[in-house]
Each structure stands twice: as structure tokens, then as C-alpha cells.
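Entry 12.
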Amino acid sequence: MKHIILGNGPAGVVAAETLRRAAPNDDILLVGNEPEPPYSRMAIPYLLEGDIDEAGTYLRKSADHFASLRIRQKCGRAVALNADKRTVLFDDGHFEDYDKLLIATGSHPVRPPIPGIDLDQVQTCWTLADARAIARLAKPGARVLQLGAGFIGCIIMESLIKRGVQLTVVEMGDRLVPRMMTPEAGGMIKRWVEKQGVRVVTRAGVDRIEAGADCPLSVTLSTGDRLDCDLLIVAAGVAPNVAFLEGTAVHVAKGVLVDDCMQTSVPGVYAAGDVAEAPDLFTGRHLVAAIQPNAADQARVAALNMAGQAARMKGVLAINVLDSMGMISSSFGEWQGVAGGDGVEQADEVMGRYISLQFSGDVLVGATAVGLTEHVGALRGLIQGKTKLGAWKATLLATPTRFAEAYIACQRPNS
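Predicted 3D structure (C-alpha cells):
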């Protein structure tokens, strides 16, 4: 049997390795569309800081790793899928046939339709090629403007500051990481990074980018302000790579819709990682959970099903863990709360601590934490296990920082 895996990021690599263990004699083709070996995008900030070299981003350190597993590799980009004939057309005009297909094509940076967005000094921060361009332009003293303070934007701020640049961050929302943090938590992160030397402008966007008279770029904000800069980094979010599926029977919403086996609407075609839109743990509604642990879990389930072994995902749990210049924050599950539910919020900005817990009945369904790194995995455990808290709910409403005690107690019989 022949398997094609489109995408050689974390999901593709885990799927290929899982398939090899589950199907020792099958043909496996792993396809990536960048010239470098499979690597982790999440390691790019460490590359920009100079903590690692490019090889340090590679997902597998041995040059013969995939060859030793008899996993064939191809560099190419899928441009069309014929699900009836079970073939994939690549950008070089080459066709590959398959018996089972995994779509793990990940996502790409969104470039808003802003005049001047294609100027040379405007960069995204998503690929190794992007990192090289940023390193070339982000010299000590350079004026850098970053558009967007979501997940990607916040994890690259520290690397830019360590390069000695003057950094200004512009964010449309009223706080940092508005799609993963409560207003209070996002506000705390904003004030923290400002103390580290980052200028933050919220409730603003970029209207126009022009070549400057005395500088590489002149940027006009939606507020009317004009900023001169040497580099503009666009960190305005990402979108799943699904264009090659247009006109096929594979159902696509925001991402590729899959069931709990990670199979798409077309038998024999699976999806995993940032491109997959899978059922949520609590609501059953489909969502894209673009985090590496989720990609690995989905990849294992998909690969086992491709090999003929029954496996299912229990549901996607939204998880975000973020290091914003030394301030660690996290959010899990339905962190914004649910209809009919209740919650508690506690903040101590002087100590850099914050916690929000959201309940449905006596089950913890969501949480947000800032500055609480010890035992924070207990929050995930309580939420993912749909643990009935009983009397512990009242304890947590009064003292939400006792979540680790609640987790341990609720694992015991008759607790």
C-alpha cells in the first residue's frame, strides 16, 4: 500500500514515523514544499536570538533519519487532487498516485491587502527564508514595526529586542493576544512587554506602507500617525493551506473538516495539524487548534487509521502556552466561558499572577493563567478529563489557585 503525506512539519513527520511502525512494508512518501529538512517553525525565535543555528530547528537531527526508516522524501507543492483517480498533481507537473493520503499542509501567514505590503522591507516570520531576511534587516538600532500581537507576534518580540532593535507593535485589538487571553490577562501582558522596552499601540492597524524619503519605509496607521521604520514584520495571523483542494469532494470550511478518526469527507483521505478542522472536546463543533501537541496527536490517530488500525481522537482541546518576554501565560478549553456557566477571576499584577477559571456545572471547561507555571498542567488535566469537581468547585471559586490540589483529590476514588 502506498501512502502520501503532504506536509513535512511536525504532523507530517509524526504521521510518517507512526505509519512506518504500524505498516512496516508499506510505501511512504513524505512531501514538503521548502528545500530545508523538516523543521519546527516554533524554533525560529531561538534562531533569531542566536541561541541555535538553522540545524537546531530541524525536527530530526540525523541526516539519514528518514532514509533509515525507508520513508521517501520529495520537495514539491501540491496544486491539485483527483480523489476519484487517487492522484496528486505537484507544481512541477509531476503526478503521484496513492492508496491513502494525509493532508498535513499546515498554514501560511496572512498578508492583509494593505498598499505597499509587497515592498522588500516587509516580511512575515514563518519560514527559515523569512528568518534569514529578518536577521539581515533587524540590525542593532534598527527601527522595527510589527503588525499584530497574536500568538506568533508575541513569541518573536523577545528575539527582536535581544537583537537590539527599537520595536513598536501595532495591534487591532484592545490588548495583546486577544484571541487567547481574557481582557485582564492580555492587558497584563501588554503592560509587561512595555516595561521591557516595547512600544505597544492597540486599537490600531496599518493603512498604508510607502518607501520613505529618508528611511526604507514610512507607515501610516489607522490612527493617522506616521512611523518611519527599517523593517515591518507582518504577524497578522495564519490561514490553512487548502487552495489545492478547490473543486474536490473534500469538505473545507476554515480548514479541512475531519471526523474523530481524522478522515475527511472522502474515504482514504485524512488531515492533521494546522490544516485540520476537528470536533471540539466539549461542544463537538469543528475548530482548528494550531498547536504542535495537537498536531502530533492528530497525526498519530490519522496514521493508525491509514494503516488499518482503529484509533480515535476524544476531541480537540484548545491549548495555548505563550512566553512573552519572560511572562508565561496559558489558556485552555472554553477560556471565555460558556452560556449558563459561571467562573472566577483573580489577579495580582504586582506579583505578575492571574488566573481565571470557567465552569459548566461542576466541570471546569476553561482556564486562563499568567505567571503560574508550576502544576499548570493540572488545569489541562481537569478540563480534558471533564472531571466532576463536586465540593471542590466551591473551593476553587473561593481560592482558584488551589487547582492542583483539586486535580490530585479528584483522581482519588470517592474524593
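Annotation: The radius of gyration is 23 Å. The first strand starts at residue 2 and ends at 6.
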